[in-house]
Design a protein that fits this description.
Length: 172
């Protein structure tokens, strides 16, 4: 774990996007003390962030590709299980994407942002290979300190993802 926040900057899909306000602790400090005069215009007020559904498809794609490797390294993708399940659980509260999940997935595939449309029967979600499953379970346990509050058990995360893929019209 890093003691700081990492920003991913570069070529990224920002359609669909979510606009979020942007500030800094210095700007907020000055505003609270009435000392903001002259500094109002030296920062962007908002930033376009990747829509969580884009992140979900990227995580599902990474899980599938990395799990499929003969020498898969679960530490490189195991956090995606819980992250994906949490995005799916929050789907009803997410801003509208302006397209269906199936349309987004097809667009991401066409743009080569993902390698394949997610499948509910993907081996990374079935975890049928006992050796790989044990490795994923060990890695899942190792990342526990990264989370606070109740965890999503690995099997529940897989079931949540599989169910969502089946429900998402045209992506199953």
């Amino acid at each position: 774990m890093s003691p700081f926040i990492r920003l991913e900057v570069g070529r990224a899909r920002v359609v669909p996007h979510v606009t979020r306000p942007l500030s800094s602790f210095v700007h907020d400090y000055l505003a609270r003390r009435g000392m903001l005069a002259g500094f109002e215009d030296n920062r962007p007020a908002a930033v376009r962030c990747v829509h969580p559904l884009v992140t979900l498809f990227e995580k599902l794609d990474a899980m599938s590709r990395r799990y499929a490797r003969e020498e898969s390294e679960p530490d490189t993708f195991v956090r995606h299980y819980e992250d994906a399940a949490q995005i799916i659980r929050a789907a009803g509260t997410l801003p509208k994407a302006g397209m269906t999940a199936a349309e987004l997935a097809r667009g991401m595939l066409d743009e080569r942002d993902i390698a394949a449309i997610p499948r509910a029967d993907d081996p990374a979600l079935a975890l049928a290979d006992s050796a790989k499953r044990m490795a994923v379970e060990r890695a899942y346990a190792r990342i526990a300190p990264m989370f606070w509050g109740p965890r999503v058990p690995l099997d529940e995360a897989c079931a949540t993802i599989r169910d969502w893929i089946e429900r998402a019209s045209g992506t199953g």
